[in-house]
UniProtKB/TrEMBL annotation:
Boundaries of every DinB-like domain copy: 101-247
InterPro entries (UniProt xref): 5peptide_repeat (IPR001646), DinB-like (IPR024775), DinB/YfiT-like (IPR034660)
Database matches in Pfam families: DinB_2, Pentapeptide
Naturally occurring in which organism (per UniProt): Trebonia kvetii
UniProt name for this protein: DinB family protein
Signal sequence annotation: none
Transmembrane spans: none
């Protein structure tokens, strides 16, 4: 194993690096940035955690003996009561959640239209631009609805945008240089959202409780060519839509100040 004792690694970049089981003692991680990283089962003792901004999924995160994850969840739900409807258990709940998302996204798109078109391709704090966010949601629908649920092994559009940390996968587009007009991306979005509406419209208790039929094993892409619970696939889509709209609203507020 590598030993970086008394090493100066300031400004180092670890890209897709395997640090499982690594040990950090008396290390200076000030101003470090972690993106798309897995921090499961991390133990921190005697640390100073100040001026920290964390955005991600929190489960069983204990700080000074207190599991803060339920506290964060409760506060997020207090700020936006509709958030709790993004974890439905029956077909009617899924249809209600999707109607909420359609309404909220329409408001967000209207807000984005008031900005100069060039700003919709601009990143805020190295996050996806507004148009890239929409392209990623097209990809999420293609992956979890058209591929996993509907069985299309290659549902991708050239503008689909997987998550940044996804390894290059044959047949899956990931063009970060594309700069499509907003209306072009929105046309693609409307098509994919209509697909979700159609799937949810035909959802029954039995179909919600069922598992998907895997695409052929030799079909590259995401998710893997295995079976998934239909409910899990649909919950992933709701979560993607909810969280990325929240990020988009956050970044639009910053872009508005640049006008």
């Amino acid at each position: 194993m590598a030993d970086f004792k008394d090493a100066d690694l300031r400004g180092a970049r670890f890209d897709r690096a395997e640090l499982n089981g690594a040990e950090f003692r008396a290390c200076d991680l000030n101003d470090a940035t972690f993106r798309g990283s897995s921090l499961h089962r991390v133990t921190m003792r005697g640390v100073e955690l100040c001026d920290v901004d964390i955005a991600g999924e929190l489960l069983r995160v204990t700080i000074n003996g207190v599991d803060i994850a339920p506290l964060v969840e409760a506060e997020l739900n207090r700020r936006d009561p509709e958030r709790v409807k993004m974890r439905p258990d029956d077909p009617a709940g899924f249809r209600e959640a999707w109607e909420i998302l359609e309404r909220l996204w329409a408001q967000t798109v209207e807000r984005a239209r008031r900005l100069p078109p060039a700003l919709l391709h601009e990143s805020v704090d190295c996050e996806w631009s507004f148009t890239e966010t929409l392209r990623h949601l097209v990809y999420a629908t293609d992956a979890w609805v058209r591929r996993a649920i509907l069985g299309d092994p290659a549902p991708w559009d050239p503008l689909d945008l997987p998550w940044d940390e996804m390894p290059d996968t044959p047949g899956t587009p990931r063009d970060r240089t594309a700069r499509p007009a907003l209306d072009e991306v929105l046309a693609l979005r409307r098509d994919r959202m209509a697909t979700v509406t159609e799937v949810l419209g035909g959802l029954t208790p039995d179909s919600l409780a069922a598992d998907t039929t895997p695409v052929p094993a030799d079909s590259p892409g995401w998710p893997p060519a295995v079976s998934f619970p239909v409910k899990e696939c649909l919950l992933i889509v709701l979560n993607e839509e909810w969280e990325h709209r929240r990020y988009a609203e956050r970044d639009l507020a910053i872009l508005e100040k640049r006008v």
